[in-house]
Amino acid sequence: TIGGPKELTAFLHNMGDHVTRLDRWExxxxxxxxxxxxxxxxxxxxxxxxxxxxxxxxxxxxxxQQLIDWMEA
Length: 73
Hints:
The protein is mainly α. The protein is built from 3 helices and no strands. The chain has helices at 5-14, 43-55, 61-72. It has one domain (5-72). Its EC number is 3.5.2.6. It is an enzyme of class 3 (hydrolase).
């Protein structure tokens, strides 16, 4: 497990993704406030992160397969 929002953001930063951030838990993260940068990413950052997770050595084979299964569902 990674932990909570702070730990997930740190994990992503360690992967080189300095754009994506998760700050709040459900259901608070569903609140949209104009110009609020909390709980945001950009398409290119997410695509790069997913590529690294799906093709790299960051996850175990079982975890990579689980991610693929979720994406195909």
